[in-house]
Amino acid sequence: MPSETLWEIAKAEVEKRGSMGNEGDGVEIGERSVFFIGSKNGGKTTIILRCLDRDEPPKPTLALEYTYGRRAKGHNTPKHIAHFWELGGGTSLLDLITIPITSDTLRTFSVVLVLDLSKPNDLWPTMENLLQVTKSHIDKVIMKLGKTNSKAASEMRQKIWSNLQKDHPDRELIDPFPIPLVIIGSKYDIFQDFDSEKRKIICKTLRFVAHYYGASLMFTSKSEALLLKIRGVINQLAFGIDKSKSICVDQNKPLFITAGLDSLSQIGSPSVPDNDIGKLNARSPMELWKKVYEKFFPPKSIHTLKDIKDPARDPQYAESEVDEMRIQKDQELEQYKRNSSKSWKQIEFDS
């Protein structure tokens, strides 16, 4: 008999919630969802496996993948189920973002954006595309939710400001992401060998973006110490474990800034001479930082940056026998199309 798939296991866990709630043992089940998006081959799977204490080598993520974890804080205490979603392909599969984010899951949903620090020229377009598409969809879901449950939608809009103190000087200058957001810079072990000025620009830019969106920001690598800190942050999102209050803003060390603890005055202005800022014709602070960043790290052309849309044609999944059969089927399909076209033309001619 075939083993259960992860989808079947997840479904069973959700269905079990109702039956366990009627057993009268005082145990409740809390559920949260964490959605990992980010750079292709940026280390998302590695972080998820580390958080779930799974000692297995990470495999390339194809399209959208799901797994889950369970954690109880002690005997007869609330049991928590965390749903982990991961979007593969970098920015090539943006349409799949809409699948895990629904009006049913949104109130307990968090997003983790993992950016590859070793590829600074890809960093801004990857970050911008993923955040814009995700935010746009979430805004639509909240609007839809407001039509059926205005109280829940209103609470969500108020909750996004909870990480920022009421007297924070930047309260009127930022635009928090609609749900909890964590930005992780991966491959710090490579990044730390960059030129000091490059590191400064990347650090300041990411600090601004994270602060503007009311997000937490942290760097990680294969270092066990850094992975443990990241694990603590993800556990807070997934299982409600206490949030860390530590902070490190030193560009010569891995950044670790919890949401709400940074400020525009500490971050400073973009790394460009004051007399050049006016020449950039930026319409907003975010656009200004983008223009300055791309001046130092120009994005690759659309042709080289664009990921392969069809995973079946991705070289990393190449298998000679399968690929040969795929080519044969593609040729048969083209032949079928040509024959069909000729048939329709003949019918039109005869008529």
From TrEMBL:
Residues 330-351 are annotated as: Disordered. InterPro entries: DYNC2LI1, Dynein_light_int_chain, P-loop_NTPase. One of its GO terms (biological process) is intraciliary retrograde transport. SUPFAM superfamilies: P-loop containing nucleoside triphosphate hydrolases. One of its GO terms (cellular component) is cytoplasmic dynein complex. Belongs to the dynein light intermediate chain family. This is Cytoplasmic dynein 2 light intermediate chain 1. It comes from Trichechus manatus latirostris.
